[in-house]
Amino acid sequence: MKPDIKEILSIKYPIIQAPMAGGITTTELVASVSNAGGLGMIGAGYMSASQLQAQIKEVKLQTSNPFGVNLFIPNQFENSAQKNAEAENLLKQIEDELNITDKYVDLPAFKEERERFYNQLQILIEEKVPICSFTFGLPEKGISDNLKKHGILLIGTATTVKEAQLNEKSGMDAVVVQGMEAGGHRGSFTLEGEEKLIGLMSLIPQAADHVTIPVIAAGGIMDRRGYLASFSLGAQAVQMGTAFLSCKESGAHLLHKKAILNASDQDTVLTASFSGKQARGIHNRFISLLQKHEDNLPDYPIQNSLTKKIRAASAAQGTSEYMSLWSGQSPMLAKDQTVKELINNLIR
Amino acid sequence: MKPDIKEILSIKYPIIQAPMAGGITTTELVASVSNAGGLGMIGAGYMSASQLQAQIKEVKLQTSNPFGVNLFIPNQFENSAQKNAEAENLLKQIEDELNITDKYVDLPAFKEERERFYNQLQILIEEKVPICSFTFGLPEKGISDNLKKHGILLIGTATTVKEAQLNEKSGMDAVVVQGMEAGGHRGSFTLEGEEKLIGLMSLIPQAADHVTIPVIAAGGIMDRRGYLASFSLGAQAVQMGTAFLSCKESGAHLLHKKAILNASDQDTVLTASFSGKQARGIHNRFISLLQKHEDNLPDYPIQNSLTKKIRAASAAQGTSEYMSLWSGQSPMLAKDQTVKELINNLIR
């Protein structure tokens, strides 16, 4: 018998708002979810320690219920001057089209990324954040032991049964199993060559059978149908991204929300064009231009830094053609609604 | 309110055994499923009209319950002497390894394929088969009208919402929505370039919202968990392939069954290497050798004919390395059991 996820997270409903990075998880979104009895999550992947601390303090002012923070595990990456130059050359055409004149990019370095991660962890301990989840890998034993010692519940991310087992082994208290339907970045971390894309219908029961920790389902879940199906399949909770991203409280750009509300099941693709890591979003002109060069693009997070100005300029200029329009495979189920309406629909 | 699938198919349980072609759907398998209250299906895609008629007569002797037949819609294909020669050259190394000396291949022609299809349809009418399903496309209006005039219920196959809508428009009485998890051939028929892989968790509710005919879920469903989840998501029935293929009554080669029972969620891939059309199966040496040449392989069903002797010789010589080991993404849920045991587990 697995531990009860609602008990260990101290939440009323087994509903987790996916920790989407890049400004989507506003304090309003996180607090609304937690106040409604779910688990709001700050997507802190790209935040500095001080930004993170500021938002944690804000969230605490707006809810007394548990909430969580998601961090990206820093992974070694290549910084190839040649690849960077090739990518910059590809991006130049778009930058010109968008009249981006200041093309200076402060490239990330692994050492800094790791330092930032350690500083983020320090903030979680300092602020006594009750729950921390991880994407892109697993923390070292020293880190997870330390977090646990401070009473922080740990949630990892897996895209295969094997990754779910590695999560359990590394001491995670629960694991999000992310189906290939999921929007945004894939949390895979054991790839050898080809990406293993497992549908959630297959992933949940197989993972549930092979770990003793609670399984949280993610990918394409938008309404009560996916919510109930996840429990039938053996999950104890759902983690929903696109559904919360479309809510009024989310910080996603209006063009992003509109693109989701207008998309069909066939309109999303997996692409590494925006960040250097595979992520699912709605197909647009940026992807058309970059996708065929994907095998030669710089690693994450270099490519992410190189495309940042383009994405921002696209949004500022009112076109979604060069924005990263992250979305799962169920955009036809998205609704322009409040968090309260979404959660009420799930639990009714 | 959609029509009730159990009523229109006159079945006790909303369980359809997927019509797997190539000798898997033995009379024993089909009749056992129908006798247990599900719907047994003859996978007749590769059968001649006389073979089909013989099996229909056999099935009738073993069950008085409804059963169905699945046909492949014949599609135009290219017969390129150059591509065939290139493929034969690639296959030669394997043929030599397996000591295949008689390399003569009777290549299929579209005209014959279409004639065979018409003859198969004639048999269905003559034998008053109650249910006919289609893969790889939709029958022309004249054909579906004629089958309906003879009281035959029609089921189509879709891999996207758009394909589900085309099924409804063409007069299908129900539609199988095949998630990307599904084993064997993809039923896609509206591809423009890239394959659209939609997970079943996303496909069922979006399709159910956009058609008025009953939706049947297929892909990765192996046990009561996937069965119940499918209904939660909006399907009225399930169609299960790998689960029935693994049953004692199926005609799948023992090496094939064994490969499924030993596989993990990560072990299946989509490949056109065996037949010229995308299909999901367990990765083996044949796929390793052919996959990188996939874009230049002959069309279906030419490639299917070219690889036939290799697959047969591999099985005969006791190795599964050159067999087509079709499997969905949930092989870890497969069991060595009887049809009765499988169905009892579903409906318990």
UniProtKB/TrEMBL annotation, chains A, B:
Coiled coil: 77-104
Chain's role: Nitronate monooxygenase that uses molecular oxygen to catalyze the oxidative denitrification of alkyl nitronates. Acts on propionate 3-nitronate (P3N), the presumed physiological substrate. Probably functions in the detoxification of P3N, a metabolic poison produced by plants and fungi as a defense mechanism.
SUPFAM superfamilies, sorted: Inosine monophosphate dehydrogenase (IMPDH)
UniProt entry tagged with the keyword Transport: no
Coiled coil recorded as keyword: yes
UniProt keyword list: Coiled coil, Detoxification, Flavoprotein, FMN, Monooxygenase, Nucleotide-binding, Oxidoreductase
Family: Belongs to the nitronate monooxygenase family. NMO class I subfamily.
Record InterPro entries: Aldolase_TIM, NMO
Catalytic reaction annotation: 3 propionate 3-nitronate + 3 O2 + H2O = 3 3-oxopropanoate + 2 nitrate + nitrite + H2O2 + 3 H(+)
Cofactor(s) needed: FMN
Protein's name according to its UniProt entry: Probable nitronate monooxygenase
GO MF term list: nitronate monooxygenase activity; nucleotide binding
PANTHER family: NITRONATE MONOOXYGENASE-RELATED
One BP term from GO: response to toxic substance
